[in-house]
Amino acid sequence: MTTTVNLTPEELAAGQDLEQLKQLVGLVEYDIDKDPFPVTGWDAIVFVSGNATQSALYYQSAWGMQLVAYSGPETGNRDHKSFVLKSGSIRFVINGAVDPDSPLVEHHRKHGDGVVDIALEVPDVDKCIAQARRAGATVVREPEDVTDEHGIVRIAAIATYGETIHTLVDRSRYDGPYLPGYVEQQSSYVPRDGQPKRLFQALDHIVGNVELGKMDEWVEFYNRVMGFVNMAEFIGDDIATDYSALMSKVVANGNHRVKFPLNEPAIAKKKSQIDEYLEFYRGAGAQHLAVATGDIIGTVDALRKNGVEFLDTPDSYYEDAELRARIGEVRVPVEELQSRGILVDRDEDGYLLQIFTKPLGDRPTVFFELIERHGSLGFGKGNFKALFEAIEREQDKRGNL
Ligand SMILES: [Fe+2]
Fold first, then answer.
1. Where is the VOC domain (predicted)?
2. Domain boundaries, the chain
3. How far, in Å, are 64, 157, 190, 299 from residue 197 at the CA level?
4. Which of 36, 173, 332, 397 has its CA 20 to 30 A from that of 342?
5. What's the pLDDT tens digit per position in 368-381?
6. What's the 362 CA to ligand 1 centre distance in angstroms?
7. What is the pLDDT of residue 270?
8. CA-CA distance, 86 to 60, in Å (whole number)?
């Protein structure tokens, strides 16, 4: 029996509709009954920051997110501060150590600012953990109920690449602002006049960078442990420039809300961007988060005004006759895209518009992508070469090429 894909409470609260979401992130119907590890969607992306107090303000002022919940010394959490921010159906949690002996201090020393937990919403935590254990995954948190006056959350966690984990959350019996231990919190920050209400609506995919030779192991992990399906495959020459190369495969959960491209470096003349990431992150980790918007032009203009920096795209990209022919008709004139450096890719299903930021923190590790899908379920394969050449120019400026 094929189960109809429904909106999550977060998506309903964000005012999204199903057709819009299918377009925005490529949501599909699938048979949940045959899924050994059913995943509904994203629950939260948890970051470690060297200064969560300031990072939380950055995500509000630069990225237009809203502060909704908080935990810290004032609420009885003496170890760290934790800020919960939302944009549309996306939830970010930014954690920073207060206690000098907090485990977050060592994590941050090693990895810098980055993603520590890609938490997923699941309807049955115990079923997922039983499957994970059967399939040989490492359970880092046994299933437990955590409760407060807002209800009960069933929660557990498994390990994935590097020191990243997937917390599995069933919040169907909970109506608090995030998790027990958090209080509702608002900010006095007021966005600039004229800025769109939200700069992005949903999370499309999160890319994991893994060590040389490990990509297929992690693809197999997501297939075997979590029942994820393989989406698209890019190998070898597809993503090679003169200097660097990488291999990438994409896995997705049954309804395709959760998509994980997995990259590994490939042998090339010089150090690839994946090698640079692995060196500065000290191992495997989340490389970029792609956030979905229905209006990439308005979003990029607002982000630029807020000080967010993007990778440059050379004019030659837009003037290339072959590329122009391949792109065909898109919803805005190519000149509008060119003036903003927005990339276009097309496949048999449609097209997508995308642009990439520079690294968000001090280390050349985590960055964001903005994506506006129009039928295409791809990841911008046709742009990889132009994109990587842009990344290499930045890498060269940092002395890491
Ligand atoms: Fe991407």
1. 41-171, 202-358
2. 32-184, 202-397
3. 8, 34, 11, 10
4. 397
5. 999 999 988 888 87
6. 21
7. 74
8. 9
